[in-house]
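[Q] Does anyone have a clean structure-token version of this?
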Amino acid sequence: MSIDLVALDMAGTTVQEGGAVYRALADAVSAASGSPVPSTDLHRWMGADKREAIAALLAGAPAEVDTVFDDFRERLVAAYASEPPTALPGVESALTELRARGIKVALTTGFSRDVAENLLTLIGWKVGGCIDALVTADEVPLGRPAPYMIFRAMELTGIHSVTHVLTAGDTVLDLRAGTNAGARYVIGVLTGSQDADTLGQERHTHLLSCAAEIPLLLTREG
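[A] Here you go.
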């Protein structure tokens, strides 16, 4: 059975940004709440819709989610301006190869649309270039682990069956979203901040060192 859609996370999966997103998130929440964000709490929300993450991390603090989100976004833009993100090694070639095989490629992300588009601009990618669709957390009812971004990617690329979908990401929530969607392949990649032991405890079909290995996996299993 062929794979018709590959849906990939952005930061830590296809894009190397040095963990800036989670530093910006922790700093914005800490500034609002007056106390540091425990690393265990931060890890729990890796891969999530950033507004949902902020709301959860602020629990009990008298701060407005929208205000903290705006602060997070400003911190992240500044971090990316200081140290521009790059595509992870081999990933752009892998996306090009997948599309040459007739496989659609979508990026899904816990970022809002404006942050995600800025990130694509910084690395020189665009919809219609090396990807077919971009889906952001602010375009669906709930972010990961809900499967809605994957379903939206299917809608945008005209894919009807999850049995023809491969999902990949670097966080536990990426794996849970892929599982909840019923994707044929649910792949964890080890280029992000969660290791093989952490990802391996979640339901998955494969763990790969990087997303660039996906074309070879499909060739082997095809």
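[Q] Thanks! Anything notable?
[A] Strands lie at 5-9, 15-16, 86-87, 104-109, 133-136, 165-169, 185-189, 206-208.
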